[in-house]
Amino acid sequence: MKSLIDKSILTVRREGLYCPAGDFYIDPKGRVENALITHAHSDHARAGHKNYLCSDSSRELLRIRIGKDGVLESLPFGKSQKIRDVYVSFHPAGHILGSAQIRIELKGMVWVVSGDYKPQPDRTSEPFELIKCHRFISECTFGLPVYKWQPEEVIHKEINNWWKKNKEDGKISLLFAYSLGKAQRVLAGLDPSLGIVYAHNAVHSFLNAYKNAGVELPEVKKVEKQKDYNGSIILAPPAVEDSSWTKNFRGARRGFASGWMAIRGPRKRKNVDRGFVLSDHADWSGLIDVITGTGAEKIMMTHGNGESISRYLTEKGIKTEVLADSVFQREEME
Question: What does the pLDDT read at residue 136?
């Protein structure tokens, strides 16, 4: 089958998606001259590039991620900038703070690279914007009908009730959530009247960027040694789940916030007492609504369950192609 990728606008190289007409990459691997970044998660934003361009509200987070090296510029959402022969603009993706879809226009042809996106609203990221286009590159991390998200208020209530019960039992609540995006979303829904909120340094490092962007978060203290944490809640990244750091909280009840908690397998594999189904990606219906809503004639799938959603869309008469996941490396947990 002929590839749906139009090499005059976007092509796939070893480093990732490349725009020849603009001489830039989108979320590239390795080291490149010019990188447009959809958001500040480490599988999309890598250090080592010479020039970076991102959304305004992603700028502070991206600088934390990539360090001091590299020229970093940003654009307000919706503002178009000409880069060589193409016009480029960033539009809210609803994934995490500052996350963007990248719109590329050349001679009336419009492509949109979604990065990661979530049409479901939350308190910590800009609302998703649906963009009409001719070609759409869509993630499909949760591209199976089994994935259907509840409103975040429902999950926040579940977490607060879990924390309250643990406090009544004299237990620590140790909740694992990805340090950028997910942890802040959990924090935004916590009831600070229940007790003290603590966070691992990996979570703490991003909090000022959220507060500077106007996101309301409770007071969060750093974890220190030799403290009595009974009755408190502690947020930590999944990477420390089996580390010596976590062993300091013996007897703690463990929770995990992730979209993967929607199915039994990941819940069983994780050594946790409770899973909370909270995702920063689109669920099945969200993916279908966005993809069809763009009006795109051709869709390219990345990340995850591309074959399943591709078959569904093909039955609806929409042309699709699944791009190799090797081009789009991802973190283990979302």
Answer: 97
CB hemisphere CA count around 28 (13 angstroms): 27
Q: Under a CB-based contact definition with an 8 Å cutoff, are residues 111 and 137 in contact?
A: yes
CATH fold of 152-276: Rossmann fold (3.40.50)
Secondary structure class of 68 (helix, strand, coil):
coil
**What does the buried/exposed string (b/e) look like for 6-33 if buried means 16 or more CB atoms within 10 Å of the residue's CB?**
eeebbebeebbbbbbbbebbbbbbeebe
pLDDT at 80 exceeding the cut of 60: yes
**What does the pLDDT read at residue 326?**
46
Closest C-alpha among 183, 164, 314 to residue 236: 183
- With respect to CATH, is domain 11-147+281-327 assigned 3.60.15.10? yes
CA dist., res. 115 & res. 121, Å (int) = 17
pLDDT of residue 180: 98
Cα distances from 304 to residues 12, 45, 76, 235, 334, in angstroms, run: 18, 19, 30, 27, 12
Q: Are 70 and 63 in contact (CB under 8 A)?
A: no
- The Cβ-side half-sphere exposure at 235, using a 13 Å CA radius, reads 32
pLDDT at 332 (0 to 100): 44
Cα separation, 236 vs 207, whole angstroms:
13
* Domain limits, the chain: 11-147+281-327, 152-276
Tell me the pLDDT tens digit for each residue of 191-249.
999 999 999 999 999 999 999 999 999 999 999 877 889 999 999 999 999 899 998 89
* Distance in angstroms (rounded) separating the CA atoms of residues 306 and 24: 25
Tokens of residue 91, six digits: 């539009």
